[in-house]
Amino acid sequence: MLPAVEASNITHVYVNENGASLALDQIALTVADGEFVSLVGPSGCGKTTLLSIIAGLIRPTGGTVRIQGQPVTGPTSKIGYMLQQDFLFPWRNIRENVTIGLEVMGKLTRETKEYALHLLDELGLGHAALKYPGELSGGMRQRAALARTLATEPDILFLDEPFSSLDFHTKLQLENLIFQTLKDRSKTSLLVTHDIAEAIAMSDRIIVLQPNPGRIGSEIIIPPYLAEALPIDAREQDGFQEWFRLVRKEFTSMEKRR
Question: Could you report the per-residue pLDDT of 165-189, keeping only the tens digit for each?
Fold first, then answer.
């Protein structure tokens, strides 16, 4: 079976009035179908840049990206993107926000609208469908953003620090909800996070990037007893702290290479 994501020799240079800066250097990465992979590393290691290149939002200076075997030349509907900010439109109610992706793609039909409303119910927001973003908590808004992303039925979900603005309790709840929702749908997922515990609790595999320029420093495979547990349960398993120390050690090692 072809990998869901295959990035080969990705190099990227940013150029501005001050000169050129090498952001990524010879990144090679594959993500298997249905796998959950996290990218962690110090600031400046190019995590978000790499995610944007794979999503087709940035054209790399060098290298190639394939999604399900097909070359990426621009944004693709096969990928859904969930960001740190929910970017809900304040003048549209939640039901209208959740269907906006379908509208933009020209896919808003009775069937797809029903599916979007089903997602709202499934994510515990059915009662809030006619409310506006300003009336919801941060966690509820992020659930609405997830419903909006899933409504277009992408094969792969990219998560760029989607929990970082939430309080710890809400963050844990949303981790569980997203983890279970994606597993139930066998979605391939790529998460960018600074939170080592979050990466361990949610992932099958963690890739630690080193900075200046961004390179893959190490890859850590999470054991099944942690990878298959709900994130909140994984954090309480025997051995979780040992894995935390291992990943933290790798993270710290990368910071020293600045």
Answer: 788 888 898 899 889 988 998 999 9
